Amino acid sequence: MVCVPIMEEKFNLVEKSALKAIDHGADILEFRIDFLKSHDPYNMQRLIYDLDYPIIATNRLQKEGGFFTGTEAERTDILIKAGKYAEFVDIELHTPLKYRNAVINKSNSTIISFHDFENTPPLNVLLEIIDEARKIGDIAKFAVMPNTLQDTLTVLEVLIRVRDTIGISMGDKGKFTRIIAPIFGSPITYASLDNESAPGQLDVETTKKILKMIQ
Asked: Do 163 and 139 meet the contact criterion of CB atoms below 8 Å apart?
């Protein structure tokens, strides 16, 4: 599935961008709640329900590449409320245990994510991270920054070895992995609509076109 992150500050703009992404071929949407100026639970639930489309609810902390500045209790409570109608909730592996478990227990399905915006950990370290994530969630996800071409191959090596795992090598060096990763087993790849949510994302139409050619 090709996922398009929706990153808007107002609910009406979220709906507008979501419909545009669907029209451009997105298979699933990532609702980036951390971009919103208001986190009114009723509006979040109504929006997800009304769209009636597969959605990943995500509320990123700043250290995880997001914009949410509240407490962990506030952040995860928002995820629980939004996740009631979402296909998946993306919760970070490094979230404190009691908050992480609360989100997992209240979600339909979960993506347990790990991010490193500076480096790509060694293969054995990544495999340990993914093993931990897969034990507690439905899908594991890791997004790492390559410093060499070998780093991008490490990401693909992980995907060869494990199932139900989204693997992303970010930045210009890793851009090709966003197309290749699905061939290696990644169930979801991320593409942009108007703005990148992470370094190296291709736009959704280009991503869909290349994947179709490869298939």
From this structure: no
Task: Specify the range with the lowest mean pLDDT, choosing from 19-23, 125-129, 175-179, 209-213.
Answer: 209-213
Query: Quick check: is 94 catalytic?
Result: no
Determine which helix (DSSP H) or strand (DSSP E) holds 174, and give its type and residue range.
Answer: helix 171-174
Backbone angles phi, psi at 182, to 5 degrees: -60, -35
One of 39, 81, 115, 173 is an active-site residue; which one?
115
Residue appearing with tokens 């979402």: 86
Q: How far apart are CA 85 and CA 55, in angstroms?
A: 8
Which domains does the chain possess?
2-214 (3.20.20.70)
Which residues have a Cβ under 8 Å from the Cβ of 3 and sit 6 or more positions away? Answer: 26, 27, 28, 29, 30, 56, 188, 189, 190, 191
Catalytic residue from among 141, 173, 175, 212: 141
55: β partners: 29
Residue 183 belongs to what H/E stretch?
none
- Is 197 a residue whose pLDDT tops 90? no
- 173 catalytic? Reply is no
74, 160, 203 from 179: Cα distances, Å: 35, 15, 11
CA angle, 29 then 34 then 37, to 5°: 115
- Per-residue pLDDT, averaged over 91-118, amounts to 96
